[in-house]
Design goal:
Number of domains: 2
Radius of gyration: 21 Å
Strand order of the largest sheet: 1-2-12-3-13-16-14-15
Structural class: alpha+beta
CATH architecture of the largest domain: 3-Layer(aba) Sandwich
Order of helices and strands: HHEEEEEEEEHEEEHEHEEHEHEEH
Number of helices: 8
Number of strands: 17
Amino acid sequence: MLNKFTSAFGVSGFENEIRDIIIEHNKNKCTSYEIDNMGNVIFYKKGINSYHNKIMLTAHMDEVGFIISGITEEGALKFKTVGGIDTRIIQNTKVIIGENRINGVIGAKPAHMSKEYQPVKVNELVIDIGCKSKTEAEKIVNIGDYAMFNSEYTEFGDGLVKAKALDDRVGCYILSRLMDNQYPNDVYFVFTVQEEVGCRGASIVAERIKPDYTLVVEGTTCSDVPHCTQYNYSTVLRDGVALSMLDNGSYSDRELTKFLYDTAVNNNVPVQYKRVTSGGNDANVLQVSGNGYKVAALSVPCRYIHSPVSVASFNDINSCYDLLYNALSKENNLWSC
């Protein structure tokens, strides 16, 4: 399932393919589901008890990518980035363009022809699709088409996986697994759109559902790599699910976060705290929607995030699932009332 999710097309604003895959995989697991006007998918699973509190889990379907903005006379494609992409990592990478899945390569003026090396800017890059002219390129690609990284899902090493879009198809994968179970409370499993361009999909969800508690399931930065000192680590691969305290956009509810941490410890689930406050996710807007909601963020550490070669550990993925399963399944005083 993770292979299928990460391989799917789903650049922000063009989530049709990944949304259809998620619906097909999960439509028979829940009481009902719907697609709202933004394109978010909301699955509702009725609780086995008559508790008042509603719980909402979210994961965003979209991924960073590119949008075609022009075609040169020579048949190369000009483009803009969609979401946060460091241009230093995209030169000479493979991409797939549009519904017809046209293959292309991002290229620039060769380094040996430049007077001095400097990081290239997006407007200095093009996508080469092998065409000889603008007329030829226009037959297969349109301005406004989206492009995604072309990256093969690969399991390697000691329980690791390499893929594009682990942020946040790993969250979509975890929510889909959680839907296999029954829970005491009513639970809403929400797959949001356009998180990478400003959390736009999530901005309408909370006020629609009015949950008592919201859990945002994400992929987050992991900086335990060579030449990065330990005090700069965001998270550590294989150390378990990461709980956020605060970031650039939100404060996690302290009571809810402590409950999640204690649940992990009491059930021998590996857990860590995210050590930096940079970044953000759908919690940014969910926390301040309407009159405000209790929100906590749980993340799977991902090395080389927002690239075609993001890396995660199945140990961390499973610990995120295990923590959420135990939190949702067992009777507790926090939300079973």
